Amino acid sequence: MVGLKPTDIPPSAAVKFLSAGTAGCIADLCTFPLDTAKVRLQIQGESKASKTGKNVKYKGVFGTIATMVRMEGPTSLYNGLVAGLQRQMSFASIRIGLYDSVKQLYTPKGSDNTSIFTRLLAGCTTGAMAVTCAQPTDVVKVRFQAHIRVVGGPKKYNGTVDAYRTIAREEGVKGLWKGTLPNITRNAIVNCGELVTYDLIKEALLKYHLMTDNFPCHFVAAFGAGFCATVVASPVDVVKTRYMNSKPGQYKNALNCMLTMVVKEGPTAFYKGFMPSFLRLGSWNVVMFVSFEQLKRLMVLAQVAWESPF
């Protein structure tokens, strides 16, 4: 047995909520450089470019990371980390932590099995709820990650709080919710790709006694979930990143952003940064789901120990 053993007491909604947010933060800490590389590759080819970054060319995941370290220093790989952690505590807590509760809500009373449609509906619901609440943190995170700043060069924002203030002042409060629609679309797809796939793979592995409910099972299910999510969500993810990073007036809306990409760069532009997306989403899913399962068990054990008489 690897890790904590499954408990007889099911985790409460509050335990799942807190565990999901914490696990999301752990996963972000481990995979943030890959996410930053993904953003840089996705925005490469945009018509707008800063004087600093217009001649920068990124090639591949590790080439992008090496270029960033050489030009901007190693800390550039973690630009936007604070906003990223803020995002996970609000975002992952809702979309992952509330998934089981919403799934049970949608499951007809007396039904022994949960249909795939019900799982998909639950995934879309929690994904949309999470984006609505956490969109400002995502906008700030992407702005930090996309900004090219050579060593010693001027900063675009003086910290995370300043970024929120600056965007709200220059673009209005609605600027903090820029790209909400493509982000809701993306995260509905990602949520279904991640949670439903993880749910189904894990259920199948346990049902047919291929694995027991421990680390290897969680690892396999999470890896499969990461790959499925990357394949289906990459086009929407690229559009979301481009639109959220754009200057006011550059694109009329997310649809215009998508059409501009097709005309200027061709349909392959929708899969720019696919490899870092998969490396990031695959590894993020593995770290997150493994941490999530262990944190749930740890919190249940802590709760039992707290409630037990001394």
UniProtKB/TrEMBL annotation:
<dbReference type="InterPro" id="IPR018108">
    <property type="entry name" value="MCP_transmembrane"/>
</dbReference>
<keyword id="KW-0812">Transmembrane</keyword>
<feature type="repeat" description="Solcar">
    <location>
        <begin position="213"/>
        <end position="298"/>
    </location>
</feature>
<protein>
    <submittedName>
        <fullName>Mitochondrial uncoupling protein 3-like</fullName>
    </submittedName>
</protein>
<keyword id="KW-1133">Transmembrane helix</keyword>
<keyword id="KW-0472">Membrane</keyword>
<keyword id="KW-0677">Repeat</keyword>
<keyword id="KW-0813">Transport</keyword>
<dbReference type="Pfam" id="PF00153">
    <property type="entry name" value="Mito_carr"/>
</dbReference>
<dbReference type="InterPro" id="IPR002067">
    <property type="entry name" value="MCP"/>
</dbReference>
<feature type="repeat" description="Solcar">
    <location>
        <begin position="11"/>
        <end position="105"/>
    </location>
</feature>
<dbReference type="InterPro" id="IPR023395">
    <property type="entry name" value="MCP_dom_sf"/>
</dbReference>
<dbReference type="InterPro" id="IPR050391">
    <property type="entry name" value="Mito_Metabolite_Transporter"/>
</dbReference>
<feature type="repeat" description="Solcar">
    <location>
        <begin position="114"/>
        <end position="204"/>
    </location>
</feature>
<comment type="similarity">
    <text>Belongs to the mitochondrial carrier (TC 2.A.29) family.</text>
</comment>
